[in-house]
Write a structure and sequence with these properties.
- The protein is α/β, with parallel strands linked by helices.
- The protein has 2 domains: 260 residues, Rossmann fold (3-Layer(aba) Sandwich); 323 residues, Rossmann fold, CATH 3.40.50.2000.
- Helices cover 50% and strands 16% of the residues.
- It has 35 helices and 25 strands.
- The strands form 6 sheets. Strands 1, 4, 7, 8, 11, 12, 13, 14, 18 and 19 form a 10-stranded mixed sheet that branches.
- A hairpin with a 2-residue loop joins strand 9 and strand 10.
- The protein is globular and about 90 Å long.
- The mean pLDDT is 96.
- The site of ligand 26V has 23 residues, from helix 6.
- One of its GO terms (biological process) is glycogen catabolic process.
- Phosphorylase is an important allosteric enzyme in carbohydrate metabolism. Enzymes from different sources differ in their regulatory mechanisms and in their natural substrates. However, all known phosphorylases share catalytic and structural properties.
- InterPro entries: Glycg_phsphrylas (IPR011833), Glyco_trans_35 (IPR000811), Pyridoxal_P_attach_site (IPR035090).
- Keywords: Carbohydrate metabolism, Glycogen metabolism, Glycosyltransferase, Phosphoprotein, Pyridoxal phosphate, Transferase.
């Protein structure tokens, strides 16, 4: 424990402020006060960080490395203070210095090095590993620019760069002495040395990888793990005077820029794969640097390279870090001089892989020619892996050429990363039960029948420390008052809350907590957009990436339908609703951008119509990110989880909402199914096609959106509204959406699910009418959310995938 009291903290803080700024605390700006506090907290963490690392060295425990192109950490000041157990002390100390801790916490730039679910999951996992005493560390890229900042101007998304490092980053420590060299391009020289065929990469380009380490603190347990992010630099940063005198100054600058471009910016696409050279370079860059440093560290403390797989687990978050497989092979073969068989055994045992999407357009595959040129030795190794793999297939599946070609790693001019990840790892998992079943029985069925034991499910989770304790302190306090503090370390204890749900006093408190959170959000909305929303209305929320399969369009269409009904019958008896949207569209995704325009146009029309003024409002909040989610989710009554069934691998915001006492309206997709199984049918509202029905349409056809359009007047009217000037003078404005629904036969079954969605919304309206019952439902959701803590998920990974005696012992 760090022993700090209010007075020592005040003293330390003033000293730190003076050291950094050369002036007194009270003369500083808020930004300077934030920075000094952050630096001080990092100093406090430093000792436990060192101790943790020393302990890992002494015990020789198995280390887990989570490789991910994305880590969406959000802000770290509040969560670090909370995990160290000094947030309250700090708040009081600062108050005595006339500083509001919340204000400083709000100044922190989000660390937004991720697109959405996959990156946030990686952040939740780091938090859980540290909190469960698991030696687990992150490895990724230190993008100079994170996920773009979204502004809505004239109703449209505008992207600004996210220069998050502008005022420095107090949490990271640069470790120049732990740099690695990553080699690109060149040729491979083959020669026989001492009778052994050896491979040496020559004429390559060297790039320096500099690690920046961020401490990941466990919850009140003195564990501090590491997130190591790599930044690219030219090997020599010296100014090249000889080229300057030859007039080649610009060339030197250009070279520097081209090297640094590798870690310059996070790709903002999360569902359309494009074979961009820079992205391939990014992938190899961090994987190679990460693996080299892991093996170097391993060798420092272990003499037997053959036992590497007993001491190290490497997990790859989607296919993006799959090059870890051939890179580990390269190190073991070319540098450690192991035989192919030994290197392969170690590699397979070390590596495990999670799949996060079944959208075909997101599957990574690289053109062979491009790949060979950039990574010649790695290509050779993949080629050999493929040869051996296909030979096995030929022996097993005699004459079944179609199947063998589907399963090949290199085929049709491409290197297929998912196939490589499956073949080169010992474990392949999906992220929710349905998703894993689809992988096994459909998307990856060939591989499942070949290696049934590799496949397993690990339903996602979220850290209840950030998403309940930190983001909803009033609810956390009510839980502490009722069921005690046990749930913090053992989230399944939340189940005890169910006992209190017959107590009207507790239900009343739940209601007040939610109302308070809604008042706060209303103020935020008013402050940012000048729109007044009624905290007593139902806060009906859909916040997530904008994507056709997530069906923000379905949400829009029912709002349009409700608006039509209210215009016709202004006295219609409904509970007033505030529809809240937030989310970013990939910059090149036209349909998603069009959807944002539709939302803002509907908002514009409805919010300015006096007829419906007291009944409905529509808000599109800008720049959705972790810190905004922390404000919206605790203030939500209704959580919209309405993806086309089979398309959302898991979803994780669904879990955050239930944990904060929202009712879910959902399709039976991803983890929604498991949420339903937990809370039971009467505490969630389900609608829409089932997985089998969707798969049946996919296999056998038979769906016609035109038929629905022509047979349902409500639907015809709102679809026509898209192009009849109701929402824009420019009648062509929503043509892309209109066409996707009619001309292209509504790929995501929006019209098919419309009627059942409307009926589900009517049920929500009725439920909300019975206040006590509504609160009880919210309480049931909270009580059953413990299973969706990422602590549960991480325990399953640790015991089921990364397993070792030490990991078992810890749990
Ligand atoms: C995919 C791609 C495709 C190629 C271009 C760059 C790029 C960047 C990121 C991704 C990741 C997309 C996969 C993803 O985020 N899946 C989400 O993972 C969540 C955590 O498992 C899960 O809850 C969501 O359902 C799933 O959509």
């Amino acid at each position: 424990m760090i022993y700090i009291n209010k007075n020592s903290l005040k003293k330390d803080y003033k000293r730190k402020f003076l050291e950094i700024n050369g002036k007194e605390l009270e003369d500083g700006t808020k930004e300077q006060q934030y920075e000094a506090l952050g630096s001080l907290i990092r100093d406090y963490v430093a000792k436990e960080w060192l101790n943790t690392n020393n302990k890992y060295k002494e015990t020789g425990e198995k280390q887990v490395y989570y490789f991910s192109m994305e880590f969406l950490l959000g802000r770290l000041l509040g969560s670090s203070l909370m995990n160290l157990g000094i947030r309250d002390i700090c708040r009081e100390a600062l108050l005595e210095l006339n500083i509001d801790l919340d204000e400083l916490e709000n100044l922190e730039q989000d660390q937004g090095l991720g697109n959405g679910g996959l990156g946030r999951l990686a952040a939740c996992f780091l938090d859980s590993m540290a909190s469960l005493n698991i030696p687990g560390h992150g490895c990724g890229i230190r993008y100079k620019y994170g996920f773009f900042e979204q502004k809505i101007i004239d109703g449209k998304q505008v992207e600004l760069s996210d220069n998050w490092l502008r005022s420095g980053n107090v949490w990271e420590i640069q470790k120049r002495d732990k740099s690695e060299i990553v080699k690109f391009g060149g040729d491979v020289k083959m020669e026989t040395i001492d009778g052994k065929l050896t491979f040496t990469q020559v004429n390559y380009e060297s790039i320096l990888a500099i690690p920046y380490d961020t401490p990941i603190t466990g919850y009140e347990n003195e564990v501090v793990n590491t997130l190591r992010l790599w930044s690219a630099e030219p090997v020599s940063n010296e100014f090249d005077f000889s080229s300057f005198s030859r007039g080649e100054f610009l060339k030197a600058i250009e070279y520097k820029n081209s090297v640094e471009s590798i870690s310059l910016v996070l790709y903002p696409e999360d569902s359309f794969y494009e074979g961009k050279i820079l992205r391939l370079k990014q992938q190899y860059f961090f994987v190679s640097a990460g693996l080299q440093s892991i093996v170097r560290h391993y060798k420092k403390y272990n003499s037997n390279i053959y036992e590497l797989d007993e001491k190290i687990s490497i997990h790859i978050n989607d296919t993006h870090p799959t090059l870890a497989i051939p890179e580990l092979m390269r190190i073991l073969l070319d540098e450690e001089k192991l035989s192919w068989e030994e290197a392969w055994r170690i590699t397979q045992n070390t590596i495990s892989y999670t799949n996060h999407t079944i959208l075909a357009e997101a599957l990574e595959k690289w053109p062979i020619n491009m790949f060979k040129k950039i990574l010649p030795r790695i290509y050779m190794i993949i080629h050999e892996i493929n040869e051996r793999h296909c030979k096995d297939l030929w022996n097993k599946y005699i004459g079944q050429w179609d199947k063998i070609s589907r399963m090949a790693i290199i085929a049709d001019g491409f290197v297929r990363m998912a196939n490589l990840a499956i073949v080169g790892s010992h474990s392949v998992n999906g992220v929710a039960k349905l998703h894993t079943e689809i992988l096994k029985k459909k998307e990856m069925s060939d591989f499942y029948y070949l290696y049934p034991n590799k496949f397993n499910n690990k339903t996602n989770g979220i850290t209840h420390r950030r998403w309940l304790l930190k983001s909803n302190p009033d609810l956390a306090n009510l839980l502490k008052e009722t069921i005690g503090e046990g749930f913090i370390k053992h989230p399944m204890d939340l189940l005890n809350f169910e006992k209190y749900l017959s107590d009207n006093n507790v239900l009343g408190k739940l209601r007040n907590i939610k109302l308070n959170n809604k008042v706060k959000l209303s103020k935020e909305i008013y402050g940012s957009y000048g729109i007044k929303v009624d905290p007593n209305s139902i806060f009906d929320v859909q916040v997530k990436r904008i994507h056709a399969y997530k069906r923000q369009t379905l949400n829009c269409l029912r709002i349009m339908d409700l608006y039509n009904k209210l215009i016709e019958n202004p006295n219609m008896d409904i509970n007033p609703r505030t529809f809240i949207f937030a989310g970013k569209a990939a910059p090149g995704y036209i349909l998603a951008k069009n959807t944002i325009e539709l939302i803002t146009s509907i908002a514009n029309k409805i919010n300015n119509d006096p007829i419906v003024k007291d009944k409905i409002k529509v808000i599109m909040m800008e720049n959705y990110r972790v810190s905004l989610a922390e404000k919206i989710i605790p203030a939500t009554d209704l959580s919209e989880q309405i993806s086309t069934t089979t398309k959302e691998a898991s979803g994780t915001s669904n879990m955050k909402f239930m944990m904060n006492g929202a009712l879910t309206i959902a399709t039976l997709d991803g983890a929604n199914i498991e949420i339903k199984d937990e809370v039971k049918e009467e505490n969630i509202v389900i609608f829409g096609l089932t997985a089998n029905e969707v798969l049946d349409y996919h296999n056998n056809g038979g769906y016609s959106s035109w038929d629905i359009y022509n047979s349902d007047n409500r639907i015809k009217r709102i679809i026509d509204n898209l192009v009849d000037g109701t929402y824009s003078y420019d009648r062509e404005k929503f043509r892309a959406i209109y066409d996707s629904l009619l001309k292209y036969n509504d790929e995501f079954f929006v019209l098919k699910d419309f009627d059942s969605y409307i009926r589900a919304q009517e049920i929500v309206n009725e439920l909300y009418g019975n206040k006590l019952n509504w609160q009880r439902i919210c309480g049931v959701n909270i009580a059953h959310s413990g299973i969706f803590s990422s602590d549960r998920t991480i325990k399953e990974y640790a015991t089921g995938i990364w397993g070792s005696d030490v990991l078992y012992k810890n749990l």
